[in-house]
């Protein structure tokens, strides 16, 4: 039996698995696309033929796939559900607090302990002092998993038994970040409208600020290239959609995520979904050039 299984081998999942291997853990890996398993198997991991076999191989399983809906689709298969009893699942996918609570209930009904986590860093930060990971759930499950989680993040924070806590803070952090991103897009539009170079705006920003590469992208009109630390319009759309869903689930004001979803949708409708998030400005410019009000549809 291995120490831990990693399910989902995108950029982040692969970084988690490699870091665990380097830390001397016996790791089993599984991915829907088997070719993503091969480099990790070459590095020392054990590749599982099926998800059920992957879960059975270890007392703990880290799940790092795009969203909770994808997790549910995979784990609801009969052979997987039956392998969960007595094991711990550590969900590091992205979702809402309501989905985290649903995950705890579903995995609990199948006899598994459940921890819900959020990774607040880039794949390159995994295994370094910059790595930041939040984890919520039963204290006993966290303590039993600490030795596997600690190598992944120099800043590993246990938030207590409230299973909603990690996804809540992830969304709160995301709200701040999207405010910076979309506020900077509007700031660039202000400069363009008043004949002031966007480069002058960039020069005011602190070094390392997310708005620096974003506004540089706008200045250069290089939207096809995703800047370092950036994301595509489609990825930004997924993030602001989660923000809006949480607001609706909690019954709080949703005007900010509603607005951002509207902006992103316009960019997607214009065909900019695969471009850098800064490309949203092109859709907003179009509305300005037509002389019409930018109204919600």
TrEMBL record:
Residues spanning the membrane: none
InterPro entries: 6PGD_dom2, 6PGDH_NADP-bd, HIBADH-related, HIBADH-related_NP60_sf, NAD(P)-bd_dom_sf, RedAm-like_C
Pfam families, alphabetized: NAD_binding_2 (PF03446), RedAm-like_C (PF21761)
Keyword Oxidoreductase: yes
Domain NADPH-dependent reductive aminase-like C-terminal: 165-285
UniProt entry keywords in alphabetical sequence: Oxidoreductase
Gene3D superfamilies, sorted: N-(1-d-carboxylethyl)-l-norvaline Dehydrogenase, domain 2, NAD(P)-binding Rossmann-like Domain
Domain 6-phosphogluconate dehydrogenase NADP-binding: 3-158
Keyword Oxidoreductase belongs to the record: yes
Signal peptide: none
PANTHER family per record: CYTOKINE-LIKE NUCLEAR FACTOR N-PAC (PTHR43580:SF2), OXIDOREDUCTASE GLYR1-RELATED (PTHR43580)
Protein name, entry field: NAD(P)-binding domain-containing protein
Source organism of the structure: Defluviimonas salinarum
């Amino acid at each position: 039996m291995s120490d831990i299984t990693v399910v989902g081998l995108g950029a982040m999942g692969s970084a988690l698995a490699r870091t665990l291997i380097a830390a001397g853990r016996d790791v089993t890996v599984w991915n829907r696309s088997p070719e993503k398993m091969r480099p990790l198997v070459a590095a020392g991991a054990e590749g599982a033929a099926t998800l059920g076999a992957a879960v059975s191989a270890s007392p703990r399983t880290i799940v790092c796939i795009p969203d909770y809906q994808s997790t549910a689709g995979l784990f609801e298969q009969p052979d997987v559900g039956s392998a969960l009893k007595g094991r711990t699942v550590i969900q590091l996918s992205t979702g809402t607090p309501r989905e985290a609570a649903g995950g705890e209930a579903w995995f609990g009904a199948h006899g598994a302990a459940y921890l819900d986590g959020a990774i607040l860093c880039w794949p390159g930060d995994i295994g370094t002092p910059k790595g930041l990971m939040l984890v919520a759930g039963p204290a006993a499950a966290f303590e039993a998993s600490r030795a596997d989680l600690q190598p992944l993040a120099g800043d590993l924070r246990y938030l207590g038994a409230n299973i909603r806590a990690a996804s809540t803070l992830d969304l709160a952090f995301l709200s701040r970040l999207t405010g910076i991103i979309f506020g900077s897009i509007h700031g660039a539009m202000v400069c363009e409208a008043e004949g002031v170079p966007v480069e002058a705006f960039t020069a005011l920003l602190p070094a390392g600020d997310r708005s620096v590469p974003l506004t540089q992208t706008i200045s250069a009109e290089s939207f096809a290239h995703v800047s370092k630390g950036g994301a595509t319009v489609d990825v930004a759309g997924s993030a602001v959609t989660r923000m809006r869903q949480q607001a609706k689930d909690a019954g709080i004001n949703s005007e900010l995520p509603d607005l951002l979803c509207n902006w992103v949708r316009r960019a997607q409708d214009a065909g900019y979904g695969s471009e850098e998030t800064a490309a949203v400005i092109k859709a907003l410019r179009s509305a300005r050039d037509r002389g019409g009000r930018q109204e919600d549809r």
